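Help needed: design a sequence for this.
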């Protein structure tokens, strides 16, 4: 049986986390009512206090988990200060959870440009108009900024702002959790080994 054929009852047999995550995300895409790629992103601010918010996963492979944001936002500043982060996926319809944590790297300009070009035009305008996470004096001020940038980019392509790009969490650890009766849940954690492979351990629920 391949990793992508693993069912919820035998996922603990997987020897590699990325294909298992791909299989679970595929299941979530079929069962979640919306945004199966939604994930809680945790960072730490300059006072050492944890911070968390929902973002959308925009890509993953054996190199890590990618999302995009304004680097001048709270999460952008916090990640740039530490270059570390964690994620938690929870798919209620499947009673499954995946936790990811590790160091962070910035995606290449080519990757960021390619993804930015796929966004709806209004979202690209918004990336220019929104001073994300900073105080907003009124809704009118935001709408005025949107109108100004819409006029400025009325024709042609909208370039990606220099302050808008992507982060990739390069996991040092990935944990899979599946609900079981009487709280006797299945938990398996993959930890990056010194040789670049993965060590796997079962955990008490």
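Sure. Designed sequence:
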């Amino acid at each position: 049986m391949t990793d992508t054929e693993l069912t919820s009852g035998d996922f603990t047999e997987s020897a590699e986390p990325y294909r298992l995550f791909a299989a679970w995300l595929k299941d979530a895409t079929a069962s979640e009512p919306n945004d199966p790629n939604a994930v809680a992103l945790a960072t730490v601010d300059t006072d050492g206090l944890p911070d968390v918010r929902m973002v959308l996963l925009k890509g993953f492979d054996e190199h890590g988990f990618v999302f995009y944001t304004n680097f001048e936002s709270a999460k952008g500043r916090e990640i740039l200060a530490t270059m570390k982060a964690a994620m938690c996926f929870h798919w209620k319809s499947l009673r499954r959870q995946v936790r990811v944590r590790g160091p962070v790297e910035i995606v290449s300009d080519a990757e960021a440009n390619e993804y930015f070009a796929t966004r709806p035009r209004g979202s690209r305008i918004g990336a220019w108009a929104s001073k994300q996470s900073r105080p907003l004096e009124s809704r009118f001020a935001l709408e005025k900024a949107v109108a100004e940038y819409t006029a400025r980019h009325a024709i042609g392509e909208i370039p990606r702002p220099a302050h808008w790009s992507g982060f990739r969490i390069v996991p040092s650890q990935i944990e899979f959790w599946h609900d079981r009766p009487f709280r006797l849940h299945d938990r398996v954690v993959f930890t990056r080994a010194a040789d670049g492979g993965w060590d796997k351990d079962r955990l008490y629920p």
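Residues 1-9 have pLDDT under 50 and may be disordered.
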